[in-house]
Amino acid sequence: MENNKYNYIGQCDKLRLNGYEDNWQNMMKQKIKITKNYFKKHTNYKIILDDDETLDNLKNYYPDIIFFKSLWANKPCLFIQHSGFEFIFTL
How many alpha carbons fall within 13 Å on the CB side of residue 64? Predict the structure, then answer.
């Protein structure tokens, strides 16, 4: 993996259950929308996709998908939000 890419740390519900509620709350308060292309360029996103999925066709499965940047534990993060879940990547 490239050092300058954001790496997947987990899905919001699992992180929140494991003591990271404050990190999640702060991340959500500071979120700023970004483009899919920005997210694609800066993350190792393939780890969260099923075999038949691409980042480009996720909109077909999840029409409510949005891409964001924010902070997680005072570190930059990027995340995908859809269906009430966030998939979080940090440096």
Answer: 6
**What strand order describes the sheet that includes 66-72?**
7-11, 85-90, 75-82, 66-72, 32-34
**Per-residue pLDDT tens digits for 3-45:** 579 999 999 999 999 999 999 999 999 999 999 999 999 999 9
Q: What's the token pair of residue 13?
A: 């519900």
Contact residues for 84 (Cβ-Cβ < 8 A; gap 6+): none
| Tokens of residue 30, six digits | 């500071």
In angstroms, rounded to a whole number, what is the distance separating the alpha carbons of residues 45 and 51? 13
